[in-house]
Amino acid sequence: MTIRLDETHDAKRQSWVASANGHTDFPIQNLPLGVFSVRGDTPRGGVAIGDEVFDLKAACDAKLFSGDAEKAARAAYASTLNELMALGAGPRATLRKQLSALLAADTSESSRAQPLAAKLLHKVTDCTLHLPAKIGAFTDFFAGITHAENGGKRRGSNPPLNENYRYVPVAYHSRASTVRPTGVAVRRPYGQRLAGNDKLPTFGPCLKMDFELEFGVWVGNGNAWGEPIPINKAGEHIYGYCMLNDWSARDIQRWESAPLGPFLSKNFGTTISPWMVTPEALAPFRIAQPARPQGDPKPLDYLWDNTDQREGALDLDIEVLIHTEGMRAKSMPPQRISVSNTRHLYWTVAQMVAHHTCGGCNLEPGDIFGSGTISGPTPENYGSIAELSFDGTRDIPLASGEIRRWVEDGDDIILRAHGRRDGYAAIGFGDCCARMVAGKGV
Questions:
Q1: More exposed terminus of the chain, fewer Cβ within 10 Å: N or C?
Q2: Which range marks the domain in which residue 56 is found?
């Protein structure tokens, strides 16, 4: 689905919300959707603008929207955005256009909104941000080919990738019930683990805690059971994007993964950024899917679409930062330990949707995909601590004088993403951040 650039993408457009015009993830060119509450009141839909949250219900009460935009905003009255997401792309795009006009500094529409600022806007520091949708299903893909190859090399596999990797978007079904938004601590899991040269497992807390730098994809309107989504229609079902940390217990994973794959090593917690960045906001950062290495097979016909190959990838800078207890004690800022880019994904999101549904699986509003760990070609681009430390055999030095080989209790792991392109306003996703804390034994 091609999204045309329009006035909402104009880099010169400013907002009467002053904080949206400086250095912010949420300028007027972004306008991501989320769910918020203020001082314990009922959660409801809102939009990030600068360091404020625009209240969609208050805007409807003031009769600021019309047509499909009003329909969309009223669907966001609930404590989740599932009803809004089920409406699909059209109402979302219309809502975005009317929001942009209402929040712009130089439009006739803004003269209706700006006098109501006290009712329409809430400082984000006064808000609690919730999961934006009730998640029915969480599918985690494995589309970062460098991460997949690095894992094979650490296991001593030769070749490092399974033969099917270049033919099929590999994925597994993870646990929707343990997905949490930014700011919620994650408990270190207990399980059967195989450590070092052990031949037999022991039970206890994970000793090799890892993060995974992933891109999250929200499903909007779904498909009927038994009715595949063709790849050229996949974009109509993608509602928004976020950052996603697929926390991974590597020692538990090593023991349990054969023959059916990850289970307890993945189901204890996943952290996502709380705002849905829309496909419209990301339109300036669409690029061609990078050419496959020479000798790699062309995807099968149901996974191939010329338009998707021409504009189905995204050029977003992504990074991982760590903030340890030692850093906080010294009032030091978080330290970046990895930087990568979404262009390193081997499969497009449309290919993921097409493959997920090709057998008749029905997707539903609020389902979420993880992209798989997005590692780049060089060590500074690796998207997991298992890669950065080569399975815990190499020190990662920190500015505080500490070292890390795995994530330790008290560590904050922060994922960030930004779209940057000459001639367009830079936008971001907000932090995807959680602290690892000690777990509870059985």
A1: C
A2: 7-130
